[in-house]
Design brief:
Elements lengths: L2 H10 L3 H4 L6 H5 L4 E4 L5 E6 L5 E8 L13 H9 L2 E2 L2 E2 H10 L3 E6 L4 E8 L2 H16 L5 H18 L3 H14 L12 H6 L2 H11 L6 E6 L3 H13 L20 E5 L5 E9 L8 H13 L5 H9 L6 E5 L7 E9 L3 H18 L3 H13 L8 H13 L6 H11 L2 H11 L6 E5 L6
Parallel strand pairs: 2-8, 9-13
Antiparallel strand pairs: 1-2, 3-7, 3-8, 4-5, 6-7, 10-12, 10-13, 11-12
Length: about 450
């Protein structure tokens, strides 16, 4: 789990990005009419027609995240996705950047353990749209992986890894995921390791691309100023030139540990960085809604959460404390994080455990549940107020094979969650006695 991802979750309001879909009313969702079909090459397409602005957004997702790496090739998946944007069909990275800039288009993408995606935003007018999509399609279908660029980027990545190896946030995150997932690929750092990155060759990138960037495993999300016919033409042109390889196999099953693990790591930082947690849930887990709403009350709701109230407000032991579930293709983590003065680390950790134990044992109050539902549902409009945000939701629906009526049903499922369901789900899914705990900057380790 990258520090950037954790930071994004915390600062954006906990699980909402990873879980995805909160609509205040059915009217809000009614405007998001998702059309779905499959291209002739086997790619799945999710399209929302929206003529409010003269733009279109497209994202192409592949099951090519860091979970496809092995320990000896850690970093290969991320480098492959990134270098696709730095040379294609004979175009240099500078040429690619100039062609997009010429028509005001923006190339983007995302990367995590499950997914690797490339995205494009462009004006919908014909000249701009055609030029931008032409370059975007060549990036997807004809990556060059230039040797000189690979050497340059490997040096940059290795420099970044050397720096992150000194940062307590990176150290704690890496140690936590390694302890939680052992040899499962979810334990691997998305950025790779210094030794593994140094060994990556151009042939490795080409082989990875052919294996994991096939048309049959691709999910294409499109939203914007297009007709259904135009969207079909774009999806066809994007998918038809992708490798004709089979869709990747599912990620290996996660084995949940039944033993507690604790790792104390010395560090000169003035504060202790503490992470603790357990394996959590998959995207399609039936307990997702009770656990999500329960976690909002426990540690996902910012200043209104119990952990913040007990550890920060009443005791003043930390500046911030949070918790979240990260549902993934396989079982993602449940994590609690906090930072505190070194001489307060033990007291803060003990109080976190005490608060969590009471939560699991006693559950939530009706007042807490009512407030959480109101906040979750009421805050949704800001999360679907742009094409870009809706595109992100299309990506998740398509990649994780969620039903097209998922958005229709979401608020109803939130409303139906009871305090008894939350208590039951937390009791079954979280065993505090088996938690992984990592303390970086621990006085006892010095």
């Amino acid at each position: 789990m990258s520090l950037q991802l954790i930071t994004r979750i915390v600062t954006s309001g906990f699980l909402i990005i990873s879980t995805g879909f909160m609509f205040t009313t059915t009217n809000a969702y009614a405007a998001v009419n998702i059309q779905q079909w499959q291209t002739s090459a086997g790619s799945e397409v999710y399209f929302v027609e929206n003529h409010d602005l003269p733009i279109l957004d497209i994202s192409v997702n592949f099951a090519a995240g860091s979970a496809r790496d092995r320990a000896e090739t850690s970093g290969l998946a991320g480098i492959t996705r990134y270098l696709m944007t730095l040379g294609a069909a004979g175009m240099t990275d500078e040429t690619i950047a100039n062609k997009f800039a010429d028509v005001g288009a923006v190339l983007g993408g995302s990367f995590d353990a499950d997914r690797a995606a490339l995205s494009l935003r462009t004006l919908s007018s014909e000249r701009e749209r055609m030029q931008a999509l032409n370059v975007f399609t060549q990036i997807l279908q004809k990556p060059d992986f230039p040797e000189s660029v690979l050497s340059r980027e490997k040096a940059r990545i290795i420099s970044g890894l050397q720096e992150s190896a000194t940062q307590p946030e990176s150290i704690s995150s890496k140690a936590f995921m390694s302890a939680l997932y052992d040899n499962h690929p979810y334990s691997l750092d998305e950025n790779g390791e210094i030794d593994s990155v140094a060994k990556i060759k151009r042939d490795d990138l080409q082989t990875f691309y052919q294996q994991f960037y096939g048309a049959k495993g691709a999910v294409i999300a499109i939203i914007g100023d297009l007709t259904r016919e135009q969207a079909q033409q774009i999806a066809e042109s994007v998918s038809v030139g992708l490798p004709a390889t089979a869709a990747p196999a599912p990620i290996a099953q996660v084995t949940t540990s039944s033993k507690a693990k604790e790792q104390r790591i010395a560090h000169p930082a003035s504060q202790s960085h503490i992470l603790l947690g357990h394996t959590g849930i998959k995207r399609t887990d039936p307990d997702l809604f009770p656990l999500y709403i329960g976690n909002y009350i426990l540690g996902g709701g910012g200043f209104v959460s119990r952990l913040t109230e007990e550890v920060r407000e009443k005791r003043g032991l930390v500046y911030s404390v949070y918790s979240y579930f990260m549902p993934m293709a396989e079982v993602g983590p449940f994590q609690i994080g906090l930072q505190t003065k070194k001489d307060q680390a033990e007291a803060a950790l003990a109080l976190v455990h005490e608060t969590l134990d009471k939560f699991i044992k006693n559950g939530v109050t009706e007042a807490e549940l009512k407030a959480a539902k109101a906040n979750i549902i009421g805050g949704f409009p800001m999360r679907i107020d742009s094409n870009k945000k809706i595109l992100d939701y299309l990506n998740v629906i398509g990649f994780y094979k969620l039903p097209l009526n998922y958005l229709d049903e979401y608020n109803k499922r939130v409303e139906k969650v009871t305090a008894a369901q939350i208590k039951d789900a937390f009791n079954r899914r979280l065993k505090a006695e088996n938690f992984v705990t990592v303390i970086v900057g621990d006085p006892k380790a010095q």
